[in-house]
């Protein structure tokens, strides 16, 4: 039988250039039925570009694509979909004003007498979501959900189509460990039914646990291709970086809460997501808020930034009431990195330079004229400090790889004349590779050691454990417990959240 002898999808001699960037160089890759294939590499290595070519988003400049041994040409995503290929993209491709069910079943809504059968749609979508272990209401409007739940909706859409070949580009970047485990289990089940799966992730432990085959890209070329059982973590990391990784050094934790109070919050409430939380964060601390999707931790930063309606028994920032709006928050020195970089963090049509300087044009302007030279110099310095890999400062942000876009959002927080008094970070290193992640953690450490204050909400337990001095664990809109640095491991956090 064809399916057994031929790979589900095979690439040979594939190249892709964007202007001066040779993003994919002479790549050969085979995805086999019933196997999970991990595709790894640093930010900008060419992973998403490869996936985009295999899913018909863009065409290769050179090379061949074979489906079950037959040459194929994908001019559009529809061509790839006709071959049973489905993609869960790195940047979410959801329709925010439609319901969860409409998004999950997009293009295949059940009909009766030509009319959408919405009761059946709700049932079908609900079934796919619950197979993923996600208790999301199929009638909810997608734009109103926290990022992690949106990510689960995107994954559910990929699964609902019963694909033969499935690409997942960083599907777990906003998921907590139990949610990610649920997904991985589901993927193993699909592979057992013969589906060929390509899996991209910066979480190496997860990859090693689930994948059968692994391909590592560096600067667009394949530098390692083997079965997972024939390699190990250090070899993979060395292949990714082309060198041994720098060890990230743990920062000595400050005495908890000894510094001046920056945020003091009592009985903070917001709609259905926060049911009264109280906490205190002092200068010099990195404090984490952790929980499973929908447990309310996602909302805390929005409330402190004045972008989400809330009430509080008593809440202050530097002794004054909390800011009433994001504009006021910025004026009072609060920086904010939202979880959804595409929706809220970046002006995709603008250059890297302008995105880094975005919040601060007014301050740099003198007599209404933007001082170009100074701005460019400042943007260049921040881009290199945050390890942003871009063709040039004038490149459009939309042309950067996902991880490099995230570094731009972080760099922007420091582009003002003054250092922010507090930084609110939501999923700060989502999609950032391991080397750049360690570097960003080091920068955050320097920032608080110089008197700054940092609040982190993240679903990445490893990250929270490595970065934070203390962590509040939330469930159903309330604080369950507080863990401090000497009891802070990823597994403690996950156990507490459950
Ligand atoms: N549309 C585009 N125009 C110009 N350059 C592009 C475009 N798309 C990708 N690139 C460039 O191609 C290279 C590979 O990008 P790609 O998005 O494939 O990286 P990646 O491996 O997915 O990284 P990440 O882990 O950050 O998601 C990068 O240098 C990127 O800037
Ligand atoms: Mg990518």
Automatic annotation (TrEMBL):
Provenance organism: Arthrobacter hankyongi
Keyword Repeat: yes
SMART domains, per database record: AAA
GO MF entries: ATP binding
Highest taxon of source: Bacteria
Residue ranges of domain ABC transporter in the record: 9-244, 257-498
Name of the molecule in the record: Sugar ABC transporter ATP-binding protein
Keywords: ATP-binding, Nucleotide-binding, Repeat, Transport
InterPro entries: AAA+_ATPase, ABC_carbohydrate_import_ATPase, ABC_transporter-like_ATP-bd, ABC_transporter-like_CS, P-loop_NTPase
């Amino acid at each position: 039988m064809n399916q057994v002898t031929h790979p589900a999808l095979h690439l040979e001699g594939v190249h892709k250039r964007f202007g001066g960037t040779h993003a994919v160089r002479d790549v050969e890759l085979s995805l086999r039925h019933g196997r999970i294939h991990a595709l790894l590499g640093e930010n900008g290595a060419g992973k998403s570009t490869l996936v985009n070519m295999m899913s018909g988003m863009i065409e290769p400049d050179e090379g061949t694509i074979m489906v079950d041994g037959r040459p194929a040409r994908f001019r559009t995503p529809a061509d790839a979909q006709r071959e049973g290929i489905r993609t869960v993209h790195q940047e979410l491709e959801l329709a925010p004003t439609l319901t969860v069910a409409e998004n999950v079943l997009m293009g295949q809504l059940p009909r009766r007498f030509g009319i959408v059968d919405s009761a059946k749609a709700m049932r079908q979508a609900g079934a796919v979501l619950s197979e993923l272990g996600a208790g999301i209401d199929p009638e909810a409007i997608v734009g109103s959900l926290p990022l992690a739940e949106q990510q689960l909706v995107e994954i559910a859409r990929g699964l609902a189509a019963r694909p033969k070949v499935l690409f997942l580009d960083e599907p777990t970047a906003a998921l907590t460990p139990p949610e990610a485990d649920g997904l991985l289990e589901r993927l193993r089940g699909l592979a057992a039914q013969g589906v060929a799966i390509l899996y991209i992730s910066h979480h190496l432990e997860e990859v090693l646990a689930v994948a059968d085959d692994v391909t590592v890209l560096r600067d667009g070329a394949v530098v390692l291709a083997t079965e997972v059982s024939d390699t190990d973590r250090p070899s993979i990391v060395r292949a990714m970086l082309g060198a041994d990784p720098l060890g990230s050094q743990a920062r000595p934790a400050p005495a908890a809460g000894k510094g001046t109070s920056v945020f003091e919050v009592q009985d903070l409430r917001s709609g259905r997501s926060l049911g009264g939380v109280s906490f205190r964060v002092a200068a010099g601390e990195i404090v984490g808020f952790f929980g499973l999707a929908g447990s309310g931790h996602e909302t805390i930063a929005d409330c402190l930034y004045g972008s989400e309606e809330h009430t509080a028994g008593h809440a202050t920032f530097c002794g004054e009431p909390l800011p009433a709006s994001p504009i006021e928050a910025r004026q009072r020195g609060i920086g904010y990195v939202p979880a959804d970089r595409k929706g809220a963090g970046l002006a995709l049509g603008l250059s890297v330079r302008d995105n880094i300087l975005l919040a601060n044009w007014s301050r740099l302007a003198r007599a209404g004229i933007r001082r170009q030279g100074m701005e460019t110099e400042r943007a260049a310095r921040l881009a290199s400090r945050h390890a942003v890999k871009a063709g040039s400062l004038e490149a459009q942000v939309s042309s950067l790889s996902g991880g490099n876009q995230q570094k731009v959002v972080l760099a922007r927080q420091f582009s003002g004349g003054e250092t922010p008094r507090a930084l609110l970070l939501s999923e700060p290193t989502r999609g950032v590779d391991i080397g750049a992640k360690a570097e960003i953690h080091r920068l955050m450490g320097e920032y608080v050691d110089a008197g700054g204050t940092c609040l982190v909400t993240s679903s990445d337990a490893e990250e929270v454990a490595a970065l934070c001095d203390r962590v509040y664990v939330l469930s159903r809109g309330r604080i369950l417990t507080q863990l401090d640095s000497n009891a802070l491991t990823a597994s403690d956090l996950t156990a507490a959240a459950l």
